[in-house]
């Protein structure tokens, strides 16, 4: 059988391994860390367990699809439930908003909390759904770098409807024009952060994101987010995929601009094709550093998505008013994004996202306690003084939570761990610690992401959040599908 070598056991690397194994390839995955999952990892501290990276699970059908392709019942490996309450939102003036999965219930809740007419909310929901229907097949599920994509019927239809995807004004402008209520404008603007972008510059096309959450729903895996990884690794191993941990790849070895294999611990391992799940920036700058003429410089110099600062706190109390996902909004969203994107710093009143998996998985925290994953959006790492920024941000976050919850949160912290952009970069080789590869702040971003197949090096493919179609679990899983379609098209 032909042999495929995969660099990195992030979710996209694992999904690609499964797809290629099902195509009859002998697949070997080389992972630098001693565990699989990359950004999707786990943290255990005292008696608390945390999902260290992603916490919001959408589009679970893309995970199920992998089990089904292998002829297995997904439920035998991986169980999850749909959330009735997607997220709770808190504003400084005491206004609260609960996002329900049920669209009508949610529109009524919005109208009750903010005074916005239900029709305005429904119109926005319909617009999101329309953008999704136009863009989905063309921008997300296929290669943008393959002429066939543009010749399909879907693509041609999308071209005629291009004006409807709202690419020529910013997301904020579109939301501001849709709603009278500033609460709602802020609520919808926040979706830009789902791929690490800035609503004040990103195109209104990103208003597609709430559709994914509100129409397709938000989910929680019964055994926590990390079970997405453990169940997929189990599936891959059942298909005879070999995983090698603590095996950082040092080089992609080329012969006549063709990938001959990879170097791990000075040993050459040959294969018929190589797939890099390593951040595309480091793939070129480290693994292909001997071949600068093959580097796509323009692609690599694009602006990176934002990063995150996370505090993992074991809390010795349970809060009835909190749910699995909670957001505490900044009083000045524009200033918050100006700090992240222009000043490359952190605003003194940041929007705080609080995830508590023990709400759904009680054994993640001891009795009477909760595991708090407290995250703010921060700029990508360009050499800021993180130590002092973290101290200040921690103080401001605690003050904000204490103000809104009416409890001295700092007195409740039993244990703490911190992850910053520098830590994200060093743990997963993600350039500048960005969460989602390149940002979507430009209307051309979708076309500028690196393709899933190298244009210059035959037999070299790319998957994961730093390449097409972008970051986040669902898109990473789609990148694996596109790679496997491209491999098939060639062989
Ligand atoms: P990565 O997870 O980036 O993994 C790449 C792997 O390659 C790593 O394991 C790394 O060690 C390995 N590697 C790198 N270089 C080498 C080498 N030379 N040799 C061998 N191995 C190598 N997404 C969502 O959908 N929902 C969320 O709520 C969400 N929240 C997030 C919160 C945080 C804090 C973070 C960090 C990310 C979040 N994301 C979220 C984004 C999501 O986690 C990523 O888009 C996705 O997990 C990236 O997967 P990937 O396949 O690109 O690989």
TrEMBL record:
The keyword Kinase appears for this protein: no
Enzyme Commission (EC) number: 1.3.99.27
Pathway(s) of this molecule: Carotenoid biosynthesis
Keywords annotated in UniProt: Carotenoid biosynthesis, Oxidoreductase
Domain Amine oxidase span(s) in chain numbering: 11-486
Top EC group: oxidoreductase
Domain of life, source organism: Bacteria
Molecular-function GO terms, alphabetical: oxidoreductase activity
UniProt similarity note: Belongs to the carotenoid/retinoid oxidoreductase family.
Protein name (database record): 1-hydroxycarotenoid 3,4-desaturase CrtD
Native species: Mucilaginibacter sabulilitoris
Underlying gene: crtD
